[in-house]
Structures are given as structure tokens and as C-alpha cells.
Amino acid sequence: MDKAISGIRTQWPVRLAAAICLAVVVIAPMAVGGFRPHWWLMFASVLFFAAALATYSLARSNRHVRFLTHGVPGLAPLYLVFLVGLCLHVVLVGGAASDTDAIYGLIRQLSYAALGWTLLQALTRGQRAVDYATVLVIGFLFYAVYGLITIDRTEWLFFEKTSYLGVATGPFVNRNSFATFLAIGMSLTLASALADDTGVGRQHRSGHRASPLEGRMRSLVLATVALLCLAAIFATASRMGLFVALVGASVVVILRLRRIVGRTGLAGIVALALGILGGLSLIMVALLYGGAVTERLGSTADSASVRIDLYLNILDMIRANPLLGVGLGNFGEAFRAYQRLPVSPDRDWHLAHNTYLALWSELGIVLGSLPILLVGLVALALLRRSLSKIVTPVSHLSDAALAAVVIVGLHSLLDFSLEMPANAYLFVAVIVLGLAPNSSSLSRGAKG
Q: What positions does the domain O-antigen ligase-related occupy (predicted)?
């Protein structure tokens, strides 16, 4: 359990700190995706307070601190190296255009670390992870409905909508970022629905197991929420958003069907075949009746041409600063010196529209590659959990977290969704839930 003490009740200050962090994850999207400086600075302050509260409580009680040293070997020291390197980079290198922007970028990164660390300390048993996931699902339901309603009711938004008119952006200012948020939500909700239907029985706090009927009704409700998320993704008209949502859902379904095959033999193989056919049918329906998404497929080649020209300019920027980059958070200002035709000079490219290139251009190849390596280590750990023969009530959270890594990894190739604080908060939270411990009270589940 990574130095967690099984069976010992988590202290109330730690639980309170985790609840504060969870509230930030749920509320942050409403603040224009947390993208405006005054909003993410406020959220960062709240997360630092929560981390300090948890740290003080753990220090006073002499409790062990969880670092995932067993579940994800090498993650903690490598992440510490990245954070120290980031601090040194900001202090010694600063920013080519603005030292202040570099400091702001460091604050954002430290807030993500505070969020993940605080949630991790509270997850000393798997049932709490399931409860936290339920809170997130309720949030996804709200945002899916809110996104659909505010397509026409723009006055219900907390900002003046001047672009992406007629499509769903929800509380975000960018449809692709909203689509990434919903895609992660769809995968988590779908994984939760399939867990109750094909995984081990859900256990109440009182100790008795839920009835099969209750489990199926809960699965039906969760599946409905997942479909609402999918409907809202269609309404965003985001091509890549729809693609990664379907890929993420496919990851969840394939991992679940694999467990069915392991338990039921031939019947499981039939179920796997039907699942694949169902997935292909869903893709066909998406292409045929995707509305604005299908219409935008015709302009994919033109959009790709623009992005390729942009990326070539960014590669020139990276070649000019391969070791130290231009400074954290300095891409927008520094890129102007490298912007060349055919990239339009009439448009300011504040973001790289590719998170990988953004990391390398701002931090250099070495330091900028560490976050990618960290996510790779997490993905391998989640994959091991998902492929394990032991099925527990938190196995589906590993499936959802792995799907989230795939979603973010793919969408980051063509956009900046993970650079929106609200999406980064959600991504960190889902990963931590996916690495939740399987406490003894929860690991009596079926093997398959």
C-alpha cells in the first residue's frame, strides 16, 4: 500500500484537505476553464492551503506518507527531479520574454503537484476513491447538460462568447478543451457503469453488498450520463475531441471485455466480438450523424496544412534553444521572433497547439521530456493494474485513468487541452484515483 497503514482511519484534516481539492477539480471548469490568471492563482492558493493542512496533520500524527514507491517505482524521485529542475530553470534562466510568466507557470505546476499529493494521502482505502469518482461523475453530468443548454443560452455563461457560436463550449472558451474534459468524464463514467455490471459487487458502507438489481440500475444511470457526455462532445464539433472520446471509451470497453473473456471462455469471446461490433457501429453512427463534426471533416486537410506550417516554425524555435528553451510560460511572446510565412502574421499564436512541442520549446529537450516520461511511467503502472487477473471494486478506476492518459496523450498532439488548468486538475485527480490502493476490505473481489 505504499507505506499506508491499512485499517487505520484517515485523519479528518487529511479528509478535509482532500475534499477541498476535489471541490477545486469540480468547480475549476466554471471559471472559464481556470484559464484566466486571477482564477488559477486563486485555485493554486486553495490547493497549497489544502496540501499544507494535510502535511501538518500527517507530521503531528507521525503517520507514513504515501509516495507510490511500490505501485509506480521511480515516479516519486523522478517527479521530484522535475520540480527541482523547474524551480532552478525559473530562478536561473527565467523567461526570454517575461520572468513573471515563468514564475506564474511554476505556480501552476506546483499547484498540480499539491493537488495530486493531497488526494493521494487521503486514499488509504479503495472505497474512498470510488466515492470521489462518484462526485466527479455528478460534475460531468452537470457540465454535459450545461454545455448543451448554453449553446443557445450564451447569457448563462460567465464570459461573453464571441467565437465558436452555435457549438458547445460549456464554461470553457475553447471547444477542444471542453471536448477533452468531457472525453475523460465519459471514460470514467463508462468504466464505473461497466464495473457494477461486470465487475465485483458494490459494497455499502454498512458492509452488505448491493443487490444485482441495484447494481444494474446504477449502471444504467451511469451509462446515461456517459451518453450525455458523448452528446455534448458531438455538440462541440471538435473532430479530435470526438476521436479521442471514442478511443478512450474503446480502451475502457476492451479492458472490461478482456476480464469477461477470462472468466467465461467462449461466451466471453462472443461478448468481445459483440463489443467490437458495437464500437464499430458507434463510430459509423458518429460519422454519419455527427452533424457539425462531420461537416468539419471536409476541412481537415486545410487545418492540417496550417498546423504543419505552425509546427515547422516551432521546430525552428526549438532548434534555436534546444537545452534551456525560452522559459516556462513564455511561448506566446517568444514565438513572434520565429513566426514565418505561410503562418499568418495576422494571428497571434499564444499557445503551440501541441503540448509536446510546447514543453520542448519552453523548457528545452531534457527538462521538457521529463513530464512525458512521468506520464509514461504512470501509464505502465495503470496498464499493469488493468491487466491484472485480480478484479477489485477499484479496478475500473485504473481502466478510466489509463483511458484518460490515452485521451490526453493523443489530443495533446494537436491541441493545448492539458494546458488548461481545469483539465490538468481533472487529469491529475483521475490518475490518482486510478492508483488508489486495494485495501483488504475491498480486495475480496472476484478473480477473472
A: 225-368
Residues 27 and 115: their CA atoms lie apart, in Å, by 14
Burial of 31 (0-12, 13-18, 19+ CB in 10 A): buried
- Report DSSP letters for 99-149, one per residue: HHHHHHHHHHHHHHHHHHHHHHHH-SSHHHHHHHHHHHHHHHHHHHHHHHH
Whole-angstrom distance, CA of residue 50 vs CA of residue 23: 11
Q: Which pairs from 195-198 meet CB under 8 Å and 24+ separation?
A: 195/256, 195/393, 195/395, 195/396, 196/222, 198/256, 198/259, 198/260
Of 360, 365, 363, 404, nearest to 382 by C-alpha is: 404
3-state helix, strand, coil in the chain (%, to 5): 70, 0, 30
- Can you give the C-alpha Rg of the chain in angstroms? 22
Count CB atoms within 10 A of the CB of residue 367: 22
Rounded Cα distance between 329 and 76, Å, is 24
At 46, the amino acid letter reads V
What are the residue boundaries of the structural domains of the chain, listed by start? 12-434
Q: How far apart are CA 429 and CA 445, in angstroms?
A: 24
Residue 213 has pLDDT above 80, yes or no: no
Residue type, 382: L
- Residue 211 DSSP class: P
ω into residue 342 within 30 of 0, thus cis? yes
- Answer whether 0.85 is exceeded by the pTM: yes
| Contact yes or no for 140/229 (Cβ under 8 A) | yes
- 96-112 in b/e form (b: 16+ CB < 10 A) is bbbbebbebbbbbbbbb
Please provide residue 388's backbone torsions phi and psi, each rounded to the nearest 5 degrees: -65, 145
Beta bridge partners of 447: 390
